[in-house]
Amino acid sequence: MPSVSRRPARVFAMQLLYAMEITGEAPGYCLPGVLESNPISDDMRKFGMKLVDGVLERKEEFRNTFLEIIPDWSPERLSSIDKIILQIAMTEILIADTPIKVILSEAVQIANKYSDEDSPSFVNGVLQGFAKVKNAL
Fold this sequence. Notes:
It contains seven helices and no strands. Helix 3 packs across helix 5. It has one domain (7-133): N-utilizing Substance Protein B Homolog, Chain A. The radius of gyration is 14 Å and the shape is globular. By secondary structure, it is an all-alpha fold. Helix content is 74%, strand content 0%. The protein has helices at residues 7-23, 27-37, 42-57, 59-69, 80-95, 100-114, 119-133.
């Protein structure tokens, strides 16, 4: 049986976290608008929410991780989209049974579509460093 891509869930999580960052509102406030603009299946929504919850629980940990992996690059300099893509992938590395190569590939492809031209290689490098720090590679 072919596996089902979780990309819709990752994109949903990115959109929800971005909406929360822009508005300063809680997930429940932003969720209806995100779902209206990008309807997804219940399974994808559930996995996406698991990623969102994981990111929210680990925000400070991820900030410290960014400082460790990219010491010459302050977290404030990260674009919102890149930071969110990284946080989602880092969460998935920590909580999901998805192969690391798949997580990294998905994050790079999402960065390629939603961020600027330098983002895919930046995202890949940071996630490679994170995976090594967490002994996931």
